[in-house]
Specification:
This is Transcriptional regulator. InterPro entries: Cro/C1-type_HTH (IPR001387), Lambda_DNA-bd_dom_sf (IPR010982). Keywords: DNA-binding. It is a single chain. The chain has two domains: about 10-80, lambda repressor-like DNA-binding domains (434 Repressor (Amino-terminal Domain)), CATH 1.10.260; about 95-133. The protein has helices at about 10-20, 25-30, 35-45, 50-60, 65-70, 70-80, 100-130. With about 130 residues, the protein is an all-alpha fold. Helix 1 packs across helix 3. The model is unreliable at about 1-5 (pLDDT under 50). The protein is built from seven helices and no strands. The radius of gyration is 30 Å and the shape is elongated.
Length: about 130
């Protein structure tokens, strides 16, 4: 039985990585200086010119090898092995006391208002002095 190796579809890999990055075709096209239709054509082709592949890889923040060897299965394995849902545990430890922070911000606000009032009073005194001359 002859088992042929499955060829990688580079365009599809580019599309998947772009989508995982939350990037639209228009944004990728603009970043590499081509039209959106050209990006669509690239994503539809099995092979991509090495220079274009390098430019696309740079914009997507991955290596050309990552694009060539991309696999949804590998991505899901990585996510499955590294993502931990801690919503059931209430071990949230804040590094500061939120109430203290609110009090600090309130004190800063009061100090700012007092400074503004002093400056207003000084300005009014200067204006009155100019008017009395």
């Amino acid at each position: 039985m002859n088992t042929a190796t499955k060829t990688k579809h580079i365009g599809r890999n580019i599309s998947r990585i772009r989508e995982l990055r939350g990037m639209k075709q228009e944004a990728l096209a603009q970043a590499i200086g081509i039209s959106q239709q050209s990006v669509s054509n690239i994503e539809g082709s099995e092979t991509v010119d090495e220079d274009k592949l390098k430019a696309i890889a740079e914009v997507l923040g991955v290596s050309t090898e990552a694009i060539k060897n991309y696999s949804d299965e590998i991505v899901f394995n990585i996510i499955g092995n590294t993502y931990h849902d801690n919503s059931s545990s209430l071990n949230y430890s804040c590094t500061f006391n939120p109430v203290d922070k609110i009090v600090q911000l309130y004190d800063e606000k009061i100090a700012l208002y007092e400074r503004m009032l002093r400056e207003k009073d000084e300005m009014m005194a200067r204006l009155e002095k100019l008017l009395n001359k």
